[in-house]
Every structure is written in C-alpha cells, then in structure tokens.
C-alpha cells in the first residue's frame, strides 16, 4: 500500500473498517514491516541507471539532428528523425528483435573497446538507395538481393554518416568511429556474448513518405570506461563556465585588431555573355550608379556606410558620410 495514492473514498472506507474492528491496525503494521521480494532476472541484468539512460538519450538526440542534416543534404529530400526509446536488454534479445534480413553497420569506436551496431530498417535503407540513384525515395526491394554496386553505395553513405557520432559524443569521450563491416543477416553477427547487456537507442525516421527505424546497439563493454561521465553530476561539472574579465579583455583586444575587407562599390551592370566575350582593352562599361548619389561601402559582404569618392594626396579614397540604411541602394 505504501507508495499508492488513495482516493478520499478509499481513505473513508479504511477509517471506517478500523473503527468498526473489521481491520486491525497492528496487523497492517506487521504486513508493512514484512520484506517484499522483487523478482530479478539475471538474464536481463540492469547495468545502467535511469540517469545514465537519459544521458544516452540526450547524446543520440544530438546525433539524430546531425544525421538529419547530413542525410537531407545527401539525399536532397525532407528527413525527420527523433529518439523513440532507450532501453537496456541482453544482446540475444536485440538480435531476435531485428528483421531476418536488414542493414547492419558494424562500427569500431577507438580508443573504446568493442563495437557499436547501427541497424537500419530495410524500408529506410532502400528509400535512401532509391534517392541516391535518382528515384523518388520509394521502398520495397529485397535486402538479400543487394548487388555489389548497391552495397558499395550504401557503405559510402553510412561511412560518412557515422562521422556524426564523433561530434555527438565529444562532450563524453573523444572517439574515432570507423565503419568496419556491413552485414545483412543478424544471425552471422556475433560481436559479443548473447547474455551481455546492451543499450538500444531506437530512432524514428521519416524519409519523404517512407517511415522506419534505426536501432543503435551499444554493448556495456563499450560504455564501461565512460559510465561515470554519463551522470548528471558530470554534465553539470562540464558545463561551460562564464569567461573571466581577463579572458573577455583578451578576446576584445583580438577582435579590435582583426582585419576585415572594406569595399566601396562604384556600381553594377548587366551584360550578355556574348558582350563579355567581346570585351577588349579600351572598351567602356556603363554602370548603373548615378554620379550624384553616394556609394555603398561594404564590410565583408554587408552594406554598412554610404560614402563619396575622392582623392587623398595622390591616392584614391572614399569619405564616409553616413550609415547605410535599407532602401538607399539596390543591394538589398
């Protein structure tokens, strides 16, 4: 009963039973004092705390955002990715849960020991492959019939995709992820013992109209050296501190002496490619800049001031007359 929240009716009924003698208060106390037995399955050893699992979820939410950016650029289509679940279970249970034929990327993460497995659902993998080959991102092909060319294309795609692991994990560990193998049959993939505890992070993925999952399997042996860093206490300690006054003064000094390109734009014009090819020494190009109007002065590529051209001694110069305001030139 401890830990349960009783309703008002239940409280009234309990008090009534105690007052009428139907229940004995001493009996309730003895029952509460008895040790409660909780069943523990040694095949499902819980080796990670909820706090550590939350840290892994945060890391892979970041990884999902990085992977979304990379795949969107490579496949030139809308992609959405988010963490669905983070759970710990025996490796054997993970292998049984994935399809019989799927895309399994085996990743080495030196200097950490062991290997990480990134399982990509066949529907997602073929949608990616279809986009690479110029299609609309359709799915439905058979993974077991991957040709050498298709395997090579997917290997190249995932080889660069796992670089996002390095950036996502940089707050916890400095790793150098390497795609060591690509397998399609999980029965042939035995990287650790069946009863070894693994963390499985499931990402929901949407590529155009096709949806599926990416499962990231991380064995305990990989995370063991960095488990203390997965606590909230470590994350709070490693948070960036406010810069000191000396650091701010040094930064300000460096900014003040940084060099920037300053350009006074004399004008613009449009000419045809044919006219451009016919240009010769002595030809005159008419600009669209009115000689009575001030010039636009740009810092880098950004308009900042208005000025007028002139001479200072024997050198060409431009005099700043006012700040640039939007609408004063045709640049914007």
Automatic annotation (TrEMBL):
It comes from the Bacteria. Residues 255-322 form the Flagellar motor switch protein FliN-like C-terminal domain. GO terms for biological process: bacterial-type flagellum-dependent swarming motility; positive chemotaxis. Its main location: other. GO terms for molecular function: cytoskeletal motor activity. Transmembrane segments: none annotated. InterPro entries: CheC-like_sf, Flag_FliM, FliN-like_C, SpoA-like_sf. Belongs to the FliM family. PANTHER family: FLAGELLAR MOTOR SWITCH PROTEIN FLIM, YOP PROTEINS TRANSLOCATION PROTEIN Q. This is Flagellar motor switch protein FliM. It comes from Priestia koreensis. The lineage of its organism: Bacteria, Bacillati, Bacillota, Bacilli, Bacillales.
